[in-house]
Amino acid sequence: MSVEILDGATIVNFLEDEEAFSVSVRDRFAHLDSNHDGQLSYGEMLKELQGLRVMETHFGVDVETDPDELVRVYDSLFVQFDHDLNGTVDLEEFKAETRQMMLAMANGMGFLPVQMVLEEDSFLKKAVEWESAKLLASYSSCMAT
């Protein structure tokens, strides 16, 4: 985990770079697809869903959540990814829903910088790394001229 500063523009700009976003999604999908069948089962997606930390917090401290309620939340999230309701999530469904979730986060965040603790392999961390690389490249380009 690391503490990063980001805003909605960080996320939106990352999503607009189709190549960078697609590579990140394909890599994450491949990591989750443990049986390499090109489909994510509920079991394969569960760790990712749990990583979303859909828990109640009280002033930043986790509050114990009813396990049955969490199962219902994870079931509901899986269905949100499984657009065709066939019981699995393919790469395109995963990409489309990941994009929608990230846009929702960007919209909720707005364009004021926010300090967040990010998991190392999260899509938000990838967006911050992408933005940092772009800024460094721009700075290097300016210094070269």
Automatic annotation (TrEMBL):
Keywords: Calcium. Transmembrane segments: none annotated. The keyword Calcium applies. The keyword Transmembrane does not apply. InterPro entries: EF-hand-dom_pair, EF_Hand_1_Ca_BS, EF_hand_dom. PROSITE patterns: EF_HAND_1 (PS00018), EF_HAND_2 (PS50222). GO terms for molecular function: calcium ion binding. Pfam families: EF-hand_7. Residues 69-104 form the EF-hand domain. PANTHER family: CALCIUM-BINDING EF-HAND FAMILY PROTEIN-RELATED, OS09G0482800 PROTEIN. This is EF-hand domain-containing protein.
